[in-house]
Amino acid sequence: MTDAHCHPHDLLRYTHNIEGDLAETGTICAANSWNLEQFEYHKALAKKTNREHGTAFFCCFALHPQLAPSFAEDGNSRELNISLTGGLDLLHSLASRKLLDAVGETGFDLYDERFKATEALQDHIFTCHLETALTYDLPLVLHIRRAMHKVFPFVPHLKKLSAVVFHSWSGTKGEGESLLKRGVNAFFSFGTPVLNNHQQSMICASSFPAENILLETDAPYQPLRGKAFSSWDDLPAICAGIAALRKKTGSLCNDPDDLETQTTDNFFKVFSR
Fold it and tell me: Fewer Cβ atoms within 10 Å of its own Cβ: the N or the C terminal residue of the chain?
């Protein structure tokens, strides 16, 4: 199965058998990084798993919008051991050397007052990431939390991208349909929230065109209720859950096997270059 958004390096907190888990589940994934240590781990993992297990592993990089408070004062973060300038330079370097399969996850997070206070800085960081994606013809992976209104002014630019992935889609059905109608090649990624009774996620997953849907775990960050972390083991349940929702609403592609085939095709349309 395919996982459009996960953090294998961070999964090391919970399991040290990342390579074995990938091989055992046969997961094809897009791994997200925000610093060099994570990226180098993912790149080495990609090389090894692709060679030894015949799997597909794609590498993404961006400065997550939740990092903005750490850069707010002077652009340097002792806690993160990274500077804003250094992070943006690294993004450009990786993209220019054709080491990236996507730019992400970037975007906007206005969840609480701490993040709202860095909105202007988030705007700057996002613009830099968008420019990189446009310059190097890379898909863009977005983290949007309580900030969908920030996306629509960028539609003229997003339309120029090969694909825009909305990780853990949190918008409404109308917002998603509007993006598609405006010509954005948008892909809406769904994970465990559809199984944890997140109503908007369930409505959207049940009704969006199947050719615009992706599966994800956001591992380890979106666990099913009762679990300590999310993992690739969750993908079959996520796929089956979405298929059941689609069957209930009469939407096309409502069989788990058909949905797996469609979302795999969608995944490669996004990340293969």
Answer: C
CA 255 to chain centre: 24
SS3 272: coil
Cβ proximity of 106 and 64 under 8 Å: yes
Statement: the pTM of the whole predicted model exceeds 0.70: yes
Q: How many CB atoms lie within 10 A of CB 153?
A: 9
Reported in sequence order, the residue ranges of the chain that DSSP labels E, i.e. its strands, are: 2-6, 28-33, 57-61, 76-77, 82-83, 102-109, 140-145, 164-166, 186-190, 213-215
Q: CB of 2 within 8 A of CB of 213?
A: no
Contact 62, 105 (CB under 8 A): yes
Three-state DSSP state, 64 = coil
Domains of the chain: 64-213+232-271 (3.20.20.140)
Q: Tell me the pLDDT tens digit for each residue of 93-130.
A: 999 999 999 999 999 999 999 999 999 999 999 999 99
Phi, psi of 202 (to 5 degrees): -65, -45
What is each CA distance from 1 to 9, 46, 158, 266, 269, in whole angstroms?
20, 16, 27, 12, 15
